[in-house]
Structures are given as C-alpha cells and as structure tokens.
C-alpha cells in the first residue's frame, strides 16, 4: 500500500489570481506557490497518493511522468517539513 498525503487542518492561505500563499506553520512566514503547486495544494484537500497526484498533473499539464514524480516528491517533502501536510502510511 502507498502513502497518502493530506493537508493539515486550519492552515492559513491566501489566493492571488493563479498563485496561492500558504503559511509555514514552523516559521510563520507565507510561502508563495505557483499555479502547479497551488493545484497540488487544492488536490490535497482529500488524501492523495503520489501516484494519484502525478496522474492528475500529467493529464492536466502534459508533463513527463518521471519529471512529475521528481517535482511532486520534492514539493511534498517541503510541505511536510513546513508542517502543512501530513503523510499517512498505508
């Protein structure tokens, strides 16, 4: 079974057009997300695996599966370190 990721409850966010700012719960600073990261954030409203995220993004942005996996893994690690998402091992 694969791990899933989901947003932590009550994370402060602000939207600016296609961009989204999310508060780093450890530092209190806001981090600006580009459109792709904002789309991932929105998908994480409900638990999703890395594979589910990449399937959606590959269709939406027509990107290479390997590149998608690398980029999404990096973002998920960063979001976990910020304390704004939780990993659930399945």
Q: Can you tell me about this structure?
A:
With 90 residues, the chain is an alpha+beta fold. The chain has one domain: Arc Repressor Mutant, subunit A, CATH 1.10.10. Helices cover 43% and strands 26% of the residues. The protein is built from three helices and six strands, in the order ββββαβααβ. The chain has helices at residues 35-43, 50-61, 65-82; strands at 4-7, 13-16, 19-23, 30-33, 48-49, 85-88. The strands form two sheets. It has a three-stranded antiparallel β-sheet with strand order 5-1-6. The chain has a three-stranded antiparallel β-sheet with strand order 2-3-4. Strand 2 (13-16) and strand 3 form a beta hairpin. Helix 2 (50-61) packs across helix 3 (65-82). The longest helix is centred in the last third of the chain and has 18 residues, at 65-82. The chain is globular and about 35 Å long. The model has no long low-confidence stretch (mean pLDDT 92).
């Amino acid at each position: 079974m694969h791990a899933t990721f989901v947003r932590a409850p009550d994370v402060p966010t602000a939207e600016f057009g296609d961009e989204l700012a999310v508060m780093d719960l450890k530092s209190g600073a806001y981090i600006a997300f580009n459109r792709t990261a904002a789309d991932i954030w929105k998908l994480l409203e409900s638990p999703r695996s890395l594979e589910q995220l990449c399937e959606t993004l590959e269709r939406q942005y027509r990107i290479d599966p390997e590149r998608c996996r690398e980029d999404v893994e990096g973002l998920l690690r960063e979001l976990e370190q910020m304390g704004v998402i939780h990993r659930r091992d399945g």
